[in-house]
Structures are given as C-alpha cells and as structure tokens.
Amino acid sequence: MHAPLRLRLDSAALVHNWRTLGQRSGPAACGAAVKANGYGLGAREVVGRLVEAGCRDFFVATWAEAEAVADIAPAVSVLHGLREEDLPQARRWPHIRPVLNTPVQIARWRDSGGGPCDVMVDTGMNRLGVRWDAPTALFEGLEIHTLLSHLACADEDHPLNAEQHARFAEVAARVPAKRTSLANSAGIFLGQEFRFDLTRPGLALYGGVPCPAAEGVIRQVVHPEAQVLQRRRMRAGETAGYNATYVAQADQELAVLNIGYADGYGRGFSDTGTVFAGDVACPVRGRVSMDLLIVDVTGADVAEGDWLSIDYALPRASAASGRSQYELLTGLGRRFDRVWR
Ligand SMILES: *Cc1c(COP(=O)(O)O)cnc(C)c1O
C-alpha cells in the first residue's frame, strides 16, 4: 500500500556529496555519520550506497544503531561509548568499535579485555570526551584505532576552531593512535590543517549546506512530496486553517495536502513554507496542522490526487521555518514512503 506522502531520495546526489566531501578531504579518508537512522533517510539504505561508492568508516550514536548496519558496514564507531550494559554487544563484532569518552569507559574496555577502540578527546566543547589536558598515562595500554575530537563552531568563523585544532594536534602528538579525526561536514571546509587522517561528515552528505563555502557544491538529496486530498475555492474575506490566522484578500484556489507537523513539517512553516506544482510556487496558507497542509494553488494546474513537491532545499527551508537543517532532516517522520532512485 502506498502512503499519500513520500520522500524521494536521490542516490546519485548522496554519492556525489560523499565524493565531493572526499575530494575536499584531500589525502584524508572520508567517512560518514549515519546516526539517527542516517539523519532520517534510513541508515541501511545510506550505508549500502556509500559502501558501494567506497566509504569504509561509519559513525553511529548507539549500539542499537550499530547493530542495524553491522552486516553491511565495513567498520563502525559508536560515538556514545561503552556503558556496562553495552559490553556483550561491544565484544560481539570486531569491526564495530566503541568510542571511549570517559576514564570509566577506558577502564571498562581495558578490564574487559581491550582490543581496538576509538577515543574521543574533548578539546573545548565540554560535551563528550576525555579532556585534552588529561595525562598521557590515562591512555596507556589502549589499542587506539582512531583518536577523535569534535568541533563546536566549525560552521562559523570562531576563535575556538583554532584553539580546538591546536589542542587536538598536541594530544595527537603524544597519544599513540593509528588515525586521527577532527572534521565534521563544516570542518572539512575550514582548511586542510583540519583534515587529519579521517573526516566524518553527516549533514552535508544529506544535502545540508553547513557553511557558505559549501554552497553550490552540495546537492539536495531529500525531496518530500505530498498528495493533494482536496482542491477548493476560498472566497475573499474567508479564513484558512486553525485559529483563522490567514485571511484571504481575494478569491483563491487552495489545495489541501497530506503532510503536517507529525511528519516533521513543523509549525514554523505556517504562512512561510512553499510547495511546488511543477514550476509554480504555491505558498503555505495559515497554520500547519498535524496531518494536513493548506497551500495556495491559484493559477496552477492542480487536481485531487496530484503530487506536489515540498520546498525542502535545506538552507531555504531552515530560513523559512526557523529550524536547523539537522532538525529538518532528523525530524522527517515515519509516515513517508522512502523511495530511493
Ligand atoms: C554528528 C557528528 C558528526 C557529523 O557532523 P555533521 O555536522 O552532521 O557533519 C561528526 N562527528 C561527531 C562526533 C558527531 O557527533
């Protein structure tokens, strides 16, 4: 059965974005962050396509997310580390490594037998990771595959970028590891000194534009489309939608679409979102409902049953809705048919 709501997902654009980010990574390898179910697209579908394109290193948040791709990903790093209850999982797959974030996790990994692991160093974000000024002795005896840190402000010109870089370079020089990794999507565009051995883009793979330097080189991957459930005429002076916030200045034609905030198309798009009927831009009228959306199709050739495309170019949709590009992707709901081509 087909839902009246679908995501068209562009495999070629996904692969293009990964290759572009790989080129920008220079000699560093380019991995992929596929946490949060591949930023809402579907982790298995993303991993399969990127493996085929040559990607070898994948990043997830939790062991459940690792398990979901364990059979198709060559190597997976689990960013949220190693709780006591994760040990059985962590010991099960040699190609899935914990990213150790705390002295407790480091001790837990060592005491449970050690082996290849990753380590996250916090260089100034004060989120996950061992502090950069931790004594070298803390890491002794670890078999560190990838030593990581994460940038707090890579998407802006901020003095913390240089500080984090310097701190990470200092740690990387004294803590033995096979590889080092600092840059997320935006970090790749900060300059070649941020590349280290491995980059870890997420957002930009999926069409997000994290910084001005990425404009024009990243392609849109996600195209939501919703079906028209009803076409109707609205008279001048009448109102549309909940709380009657939209008042028609003139007669107009409306289409009611099968999409709403329960699908991730948030209330921030009320009166600001755009939908396309072919080339005709149709503005959202009134409030976004839970399951429905009203758009103005005056002058467009639109009938009940037609599919309209929701404008979801991420920088533009983010500006229209006030939500981050990350939220726009990861909020995409479960009622979409996810259709790859
Ligand atoms: C999410 C995440 C990434 C990817 O970040 P983007 O900004 O989406 O490119 C990389 N590294 C870590 C540690 C992350 O949590």
What's a concise summary of this model?
The chain has 341 residues and is α/β, with parallel strands linked by helices. It is built from ten helices and 20 strands.
Report the sheet-strand fraction.
15-25%
- Could you spell the SSE succession in H and E letters? EHEEHHEHEHEHEEEHEHEEEEEEEEEHHE
* Integer-rounded radius of gyration: 23 Å
The biggest sheet, with number of strands, parallel, antiparallel or mixed sense and barrel status, is: 8 strands, mixed
User: Low-confidence spans: pLDDT under 50, at least 5 residues?
Assistant: none
Structure description:
The chain is an alpha/beta fold and 341 residues long. The chain contains 10 helices and 20 strands. It has helices at residues 11-24, 35-39, 43-53, 63-69, 87-90, 103-111, 159-174, 185-188, 314-321, 325-330; strands at residues 5-9, 29-30, 32-33, 57-60, 75-78, 96-100, 116-122, 130-131, 143-148, 179-181, 198-199, 222-234, 239-240, 246-247, 252-257, 274-277, 280-283, 293-296, 307-310, 337-340. Strands 1, 12, 15, 16, 17, 18, 19 and 20 form an 8-stranded mixed β-sheet that branches. Strands 3, 4, 5, 6, 7, 8, 9 and 10 form an 8-stranded parallel β-sheet that branches. Helix 7 (159-174) links the parallel strand 9 (143-148) and strand 10 (179-181). It is elongated. It starts with a strand and ends with a strand. The mean pLDDT is 98. It binds pyridoxal-5'-phosphate. Pyridoxal-5'-phosphate (PLP) is lined by residues 33, 35, 59, 79, 150, 184-185, 200-203.
